[in-house]
Task: inverse folding
């Protein structure tokens, strides 16, 4: 589109009092653009003026120099127009002293001036994004797992008209929910066990024509991208040419003396490693098309390792079993002992392996406490004089399940105590359980016919990727390691936000959940899957940049096939070919720009956010030199993450906290999108320092693009070396962490860095 | 195996305690609020939390021979504060009732006393005895009168109504004295086991440093606790229903007063051979009347309290005792009044009932809730002796 | 916003409550493509989590997630936000409800630019409910730094006073409208999601725990505000009586929860909250002694277990199995002694500390004031969902006590349930 520019300066909220507006208008004139000022631009009159210019003057590219873009967003949104907001309020006049207009050195004025120039150049360099449209698109939803979660998810999606296919590896539907005698209550009043709800669910399922069920089936591979996945299904254990290939393990990528192997060698090894499997880029012609995936593959019972629980007699004594084995016995009929088939009238349930720790068994969550209560009730139901003992460290019946606990404990034959079980031993045909630190005030022994260990539920993702994504980065979720192997989300606020767009985990594969919780989780995952296909269809990004229509564009002629973008993309959106040329999958993309930051050739960019737009903003900053000043003020560039850091700085301004006016801040999508070229340019044009400001990284990372600040820190180190070669102090480039609520730290972070740079003296390259 | 304690829950025990008013015991989830809010629970091994888990595990032997259940004065603070509604106060009092019938032999009688269905039978026994006496008295009295005139003096002239002319004192004492002896015997037997048990239990649970029981020291301890009991200090520490303290005090002093009166007149009659009825101006008589009134008012107040308290259970054992106390007082006073009022048939009838109640008091004392008089005293004495703080 | 502007009944969903659950339901539904009305009674969005300093177990600031959600709302014209608004009445049936919404006067209109001139001249100070009465704020104030709408509000207390006039005169943008009155609007919606959330249980009702009697006994939510940079002490944790830095702190778990005299259920979050509070205190006071009195420690799920493991490693944190049932104060030092029985050792513990934190639980807001709609409640006032009937659903803590993660899973699911109602008809 050919642009007609309009620059509008608001003089309200103290901007007019603090700044020389005529001076700013002159700057606009110099840029051969027309400036208009208004005392109250966001007011009806001001907005009317803007609308008039748009409709009558045909202005379609607006620079609004007023408040932060975080406020009055709706007021300054004009369809079909490029709008950039120059933050003269929060980050200039509210956070800096009112400059003396008479003086020739007026730092606040210089700051405003630069920001205005940066805004004007930016709008020259960006375009309105056009939504990305898939050639072929489907709304069908694939549900992996036919247990309570999978079935609920399928029903919930089918109810609003979506076609759903459930794949279940077992011969029949139902999963573990179908293997129970009774289950925990799923609704108020939570006082009694109920018959398993799964049978009703399966019955309901049959009434839906838009649900296809494929039992005895697993996923060989899921290729493509949201809205257009090509899925190959297979029988369990079967091996196909469309089984998903695995990336080379790190140890295979180096030679005997630890040197990285070259590309061709790697390709060769990769082919070798995945013999008989087609590469991810070749799609299964007979594959089924799906738009999004719900991962509800559930769990398997934990099996204690050889010698892991010898002190509890597990393995050595036949009548020491897991809660899962107990459930199998209970589902068959009266509770009997595995050893001799005699009725088990006295059963001890152990919740914690003990040995000086109050931890429960692995992978238990809070579920096993409730299961123990449930199974204790079985004993009572089967035998009028039956006795059930529960040794717990912490009785975990959170929330309303407390009411279940209260109801069950009143059975005269259920005996509960906190305590550490020290041993389980044989005593004739029976068993003796010995426990210490109990509430009965001494070391006690209990005679038992059967001992049940409250072992946990291992998520399917611990054993294999399950989803088998045909992605270059590998077939599974990447960061399950930090979630103990669960396919969980890292984010408290966004439980369905994972590293693989269009694939949403639900149920016990993400965390130990009750059936009530699993059914709720299923509905949530179903909604996210539906939301993903709809967003894909509209050509917009999903959370966290939901609604963003931009997507990365590659200038392949200059690609050197370095593979960095493919490797660094947090969402595995890129699949490179043998030569290493990346193949973008825009609907997997979350628009963070990490690829753009990674690309050494700078061939990746977005319509409204690219190397040139930011680079030009950097160039637009005036760097005062000895020619104009005997003591030129410092110029420091701050690249700040727009998700946490930028708001924090706004809030600092809102609270009128003051910080140095020698710093020029540029909001960026994510620190991962920072391309070192911007930093080099800043320094080579004589700026005295550069810092990037982003969020906390590490295991509890807060970056919604996963690795942004981590990648930035790696790149900062690299650039440090480059600086050294230019005889520049590495300290001139720094990275700081800030959380959105740490706005009070903003002045310290900025001023301390300015002081550090000032002490180092001006950038020697200045003026060259 | 090791020194560990082999736990064998007795579900029968749990059911019995429930039947005796501890029906909510299984609700306990061991938060120990009760041990903290109890105003008289010690800091070392406080009660009733540990009693609650022992009860819900059906560990009879940890409870019956446990002095702590007797230190509890059932003020109800724990029950009010209990977050689970397990009512520790009621559970302990139920356990006490159970313990009483455990120590008093024959056990069958103990069970009967706590069983409302057996009440008619238990009342029938004295009723029959005294009826028999009334029937045979006219024939036997003249003969016996020759042998011990003071006890069986012939009906003398005059307007005045004399109960002994209806049922001569001799016959009454022939029944009451053995009954009293029987009661004492049962207590002695029970206490022997009781003291041994509570000491063993205290040692096991680490509640005392005293290895053995030195009788002399034990008696000294008794003398130290008696004032506490009489002053009702423990009752007064309780916040939830303090008013109980006064009522209980009246009943206790009522009984003590009547006991003293009875003893004095016993002496007067058997040593100084002065037959009753005695003048209303006689100070002993004042004490008698005063005690009678205290008994009536006290027991009535306690009945009122129990009816008012919705959050704690009142079992048969409680009503039986209060009923007896009130009955004794009322019939006693009415007997006297009607005698003075000169309504012969009525006063004789009341006297008859009064005698029945007195018999019940003595004969069933070791089995009824009233036995707490003895067991609590001993338990408190032991606590004092064992320096349970 | 009035009825005629509303979307056709088929299309729109009414979400009641702008806390984290309500925000989630509203945004997730809108991003599928449905029109949503989000009604919040406070002058700001964010609800209970806006008062939190950090989330467990990541110790990240709630304002981070809120900022993202607010941006999602800003970028999504399908969501209409109504603050200071309460539902007066819901009539009709699943798929076709008439909702009348009362919008209380903010006395500040959309002209407000947040310049703050009104606050500068306002002299009246009102106690801050947001900070649980621990400090005073101006009668003209910005309710929250990040929340939308970014607009000041005038406290009803100052209306009709000189202050109100002063504020009006100070405003350059004619944003203050003292004539503003409550108005009722009506909306036609197809489904309603109640995300009315929870209220901290009134600790004053737990008379044996001394809250309100002794100044150095505070609640867990008060500690959140004390630890927050936007709180009454700008993030410095000090004890109320003398602003002294506490050297010893006791946490009383289940203060009101799991107690049939108060809240018979478990409030789900208090154990984790107290463990999180340990990290707040530890960050500021490396040597402070911390005592946690509990009945059962409930840390459901691998992430919470891991968090608890880390706290256990701290040698100056002591866990005692036994509920505190008695407190007393030393009038001189104002220190508090808590009493509990260690149920494992059978010893009564009398621990004297500088400050006591009551881990009070959550009570469904709907239990305190029944909602003007045909809903089924549990004994404890939680809304019971009837998915067969459909139409109206409860999300988050209006439905059951839960942490933020579970609430958001639940709230996302409820968005789909609401959509099912719209599609069904």
Result:
């Amino acid at each position: 589109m050919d642009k007609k520019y309009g620059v509008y300066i608001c003089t309200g909220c103290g901007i007019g009092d603090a700044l020389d507006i005529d001076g700013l208008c002159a700057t606009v004139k110099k840029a051969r653009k027309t400036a208009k000022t208004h005392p109250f631009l966001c007011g009806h009159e001001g907005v009317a003026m803007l609308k008039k210019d748009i409709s009558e003057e045909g202005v379609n590219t607006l620079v609004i120099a007023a408040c932060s873009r975080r406020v009055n967003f709706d007021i300054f949104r004009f369809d079909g127009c490029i709008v950039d907001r120059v933050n003269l309020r929060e980050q200039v006049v509210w956070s800096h002293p009112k400059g003396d207009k008479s003086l020739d050195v007026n730092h606040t004025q210089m700051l405003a001036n630069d920001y205005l120039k940066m805004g004007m150049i930016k709008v020259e360099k960006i375009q309105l994004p056009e939504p990305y449209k898939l050639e072929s698109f489907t709304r069908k939803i694939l549900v992996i797992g036919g247990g309570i979660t999978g079935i609920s998810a399928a029903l919930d999606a089918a109810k609003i008209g979506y076609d759903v296919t459930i794949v279940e590896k077992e011969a029949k539907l139902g999963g573990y929910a179908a293997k129970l005698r009774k289950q925990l209550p799923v609704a108020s009043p939570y006082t009694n066990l109920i018959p398993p709800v799964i049978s009703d669910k399966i019955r309901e399922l049959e009434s839906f024509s838009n649900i296809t069920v494929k039992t005895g089936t697993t996923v060989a591979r899921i290729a493509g991208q949201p809205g257009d996945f090509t899925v190959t299904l297979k029988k369990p254990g079967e091996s196909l040419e469309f089984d998903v290939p695995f990336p080379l393990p790190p140890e295979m990528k180096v030679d005997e003396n630890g040197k990285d192997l070259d590309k061709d060698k790697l390709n060769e090894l990769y082919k070798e490693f995945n013999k008989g499997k087609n590469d991810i880029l070749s799609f299964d012609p007979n594959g089924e098309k799906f738009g999004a995936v719900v991962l509800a593959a559930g769990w398997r019972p934990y099996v204690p390792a050889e010698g892991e629980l010898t002190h509890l007699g597990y393995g050595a004594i036949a009548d020491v079993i897991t809660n899962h084995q107990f459930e199998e016995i209970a589902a068959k009929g009266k509770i009997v002992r595995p050893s001799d088939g005699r009725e088990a009238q006295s059963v001890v349930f152990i919740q914690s392996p003990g040995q000086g720790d109050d931890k429960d068994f692995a992978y238990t969550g809070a579920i096993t406490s409730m299961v123990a209560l449930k199974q204790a009730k079985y004993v009572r139901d089967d035998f009028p004089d039956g006795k059930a003992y529960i040794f717990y460290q912490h009785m975990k019946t959170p929330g309303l399940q407390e009411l279940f606990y209260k109801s069950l404990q009143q059975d005269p034959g259920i005996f509960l105590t906190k305590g550490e079980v020290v041993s389980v031993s044989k005593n004739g045909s029976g068993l003796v359980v010995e426990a210490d630190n109990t509430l009965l005030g001494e070391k006690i022994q209990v005679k038992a016919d059967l001992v049940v260990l409250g072992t946990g539920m291992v998520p399917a993702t611990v054993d294999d990727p399950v989803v088998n994504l045909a992605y270059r980065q590998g077939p599974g979720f990447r960061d399950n390691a930090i979630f103990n192997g669960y396919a969980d989300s890292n984010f408290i606020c966004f439980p369905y936000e994972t590293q693989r767009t269009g694939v949403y985990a639900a149920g016990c594969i993400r965390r130990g959940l009750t059936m009530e919780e699993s059914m709720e989780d299923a509905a949530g995952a179903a909604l996210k899957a539906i939301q993903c296909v709809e967003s894909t269809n509209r050509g917009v990004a999903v959370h966290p940049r939901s609604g963003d229509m931009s997507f990365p564009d590659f200038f392949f002629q200059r690609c050197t096939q370095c593979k960095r973008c493919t490797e660094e993309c947090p969402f595995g959106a890129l699949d490179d070919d043998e030569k290493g040329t990346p193949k973008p999958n825009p609907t997997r993309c979350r628009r963070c720009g990490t690829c753009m930051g990674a690309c050494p050739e700078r061939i990746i960019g977005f319509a409204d956010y690219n190397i040139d737009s930011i680079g030009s903003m950097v160039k637009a900053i005036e760097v005062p030199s000895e020619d104009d000043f005997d003591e030129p003020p410092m110029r420091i560039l701050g690249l700040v993450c727009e998700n946490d850091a930028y708001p924090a700085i706004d809030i600092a301004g809102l609270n009128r906290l003051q910080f140095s006016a020698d710093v020029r801040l540029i909001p960026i999508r994510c620190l991962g999108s920072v391309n070192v070229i911007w930093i080099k340019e800043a320094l080579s044009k004589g700026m005295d320092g550069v810092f990037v400001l982003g969020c906390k990284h590490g295991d509890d990372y807060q970056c919604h693009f996963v690795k942004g600040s981590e990648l930035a820190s790696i790149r900062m180190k690299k650039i440090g070396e480059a600086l050294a070669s230019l005889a520049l102090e590495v300290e001139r480039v720094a990275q700081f962490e800030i959380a959105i609520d740490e706005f009070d730290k903003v002045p310290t972070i900025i001023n301390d860095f300015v002081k550090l740079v000032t002490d180092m003296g001006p950038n020697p390259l200045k003026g060259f | 195996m090791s020194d560990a304690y082999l736990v064998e829950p007795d579900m029968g025990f749990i059911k019995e305690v429930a039947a005796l008013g501890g029906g909510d015991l299984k609700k306990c989830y061991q938060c120990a609020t009760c041990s903290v809010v109890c105003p008289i629970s010690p800091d070392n091994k406080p009660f009733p939390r540990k009693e609650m888990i022992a009860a819900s595990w059906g560990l009879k032997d940890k409870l019956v021979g446990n002095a702590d259940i007797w230190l509890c004065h059932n003020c109800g603070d724990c029950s009010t504060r209990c977050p689970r509604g397990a009512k520790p106060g009621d559970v302990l009092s139920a356990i006490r009732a159970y313990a009483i019938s455990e120590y008093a032999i024959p056990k069958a009688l103990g069970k009967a006393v706590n069983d409302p269905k057996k009440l008619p039978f238990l009342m029938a026994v004295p009723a029959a005895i005294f009826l028999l006496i009334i029937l045979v008295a006219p024939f036997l009295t003249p003969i016996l009168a020759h042998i011990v005139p003071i006890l069986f003096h012939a009906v003398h002239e005059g307007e005045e109504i004399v109960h002994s002319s209806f049922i001569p004192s001799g016959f009454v004492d022939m029944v009451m004295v053995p009954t009293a002896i029987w009661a004492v015997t049962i207590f002695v037997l029970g206490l022997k086991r009781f003291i041994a048990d509570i000491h063993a239990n205290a040692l096991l649970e680490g509640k005392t440093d005293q290895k053995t029981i030195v009788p002399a020291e034990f008696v000294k301890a008794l003398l130290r606790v008696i004032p506490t009991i009489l002053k009702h200090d423990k009752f007064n520490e309780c916040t939830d229903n303090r008013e109980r303290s006064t009522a209980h005090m009246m009943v206790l002093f009522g009984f003590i007063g009547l006991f003293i009166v009875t003893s004095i007149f016993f002496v007067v009659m058997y040593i100084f051979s002065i037959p009753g009825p005695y003048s209303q101006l006689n100070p002993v008589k004042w004490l008698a009347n005063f005690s009678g009134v205290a008994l009536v008012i006290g027991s009535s107040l306690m009945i009122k309290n129990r009816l008012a308290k919705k959050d704690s259970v009142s079992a048969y054992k409680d009503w039986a005792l209060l009923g007896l106390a009130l009955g004794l007082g009322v019939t006693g006073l009415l007997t006297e009044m009607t005698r003075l009022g000169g309504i012969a048939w009525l006063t004789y009838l009341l006297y008859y009932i009064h005698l029945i109640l007195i018999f019940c008091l003595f004969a069933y004392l070791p089995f009824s809730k009233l036995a707490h008089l003895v067991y609590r005293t001993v338990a408190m004495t032991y606590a004092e002796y064992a320096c349970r703080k | 916003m009035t009825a005629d502007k509303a979307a056709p009944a088929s299309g729109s969903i009414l979400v009641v409550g702008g806390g984290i659950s309500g925000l989630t339901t509203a945004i997730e539904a809108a991003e599928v493509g449905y029109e949503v009305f989000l009604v919040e009674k406070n002058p700001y969005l964010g609800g209970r989590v806006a008062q939190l300093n950090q989330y467990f177990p990541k110790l990240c600031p709630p304002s981070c997630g809120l900022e993202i959600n607010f941006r999602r709302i800003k970028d999504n014209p399908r969501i209409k936000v109504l603050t200071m608004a309460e539902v007066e009445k819901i009539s009709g049936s699943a798929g076709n409800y008439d909702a009348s919404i009362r919008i209380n006067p903010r006395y500040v209109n959309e002209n407000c630019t947040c310049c703050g001139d009104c606050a500068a001249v306002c002299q009246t100070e009102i106690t801050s409910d947001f900070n649980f009465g621990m400090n005073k704020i101006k009668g003209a104030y910005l309710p929250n730094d990040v929340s939308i709408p970014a607009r000041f509000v005038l406290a009803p207390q100052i209306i009709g006073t000189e202050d109100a006039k002063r504020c009006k005169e100070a405003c350059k943008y004619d944003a203050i409208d003292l004539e503003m009155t409550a108005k009722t609007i009506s909306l036609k919606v197809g489904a309603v999601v109640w995300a009315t959330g929870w209220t901290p249980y009134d600790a004053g009702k737990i008379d044996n725990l001394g809250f309100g009697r002794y100044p150095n006994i505070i609640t867990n939510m008060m500690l959140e505000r004390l630890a927050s940079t936007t709180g009454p002490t700008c993030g410095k944790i000090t004890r109320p009586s003398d602003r002294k830095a506490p050297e010893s702190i006791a946490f009383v778990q289940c203060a009101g929860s799991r107690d049939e005299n108060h809240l018979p259920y478990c409030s789900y979050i208090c154990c984790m909250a107290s463990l999180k509070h340990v990290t707040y205190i530890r960050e500021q006071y490396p040597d402070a002694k911390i005592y946690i009195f509990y009945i059962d420690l409930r840390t459901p799920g691998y992430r919470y277990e891991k968090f608890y493991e880390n706290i256990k490693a701290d040698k100056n944190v002591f866990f005692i199995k036994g509920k505190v049932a008695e407190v007393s104060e030393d009038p001189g030092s104002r220190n508090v002694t808590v009493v509990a029985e260690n149920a494992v050792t059978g010893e009564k513990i009398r621990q004297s500390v500088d400050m006591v934190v009551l881990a009070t639980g959550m009570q469904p807001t709907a239990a305190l004031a029944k909602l003007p709609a045909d809903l089924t409640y549990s004994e404890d006032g939680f809304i019971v969902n009837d998915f067969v009937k459909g139409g109206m659903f409860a999300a988050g803590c209006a439905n059951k006590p839960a942490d933020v993660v579970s609430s958001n899973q639940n709230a996302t699911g409820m968005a789909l349930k609401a959509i099912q109602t719209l599609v069904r008809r």
Observations:
- The two ends of chain C are 26 Å apart (CA to CA).
- Chain C touches chain A through 88 residues (CB under 8 Å).
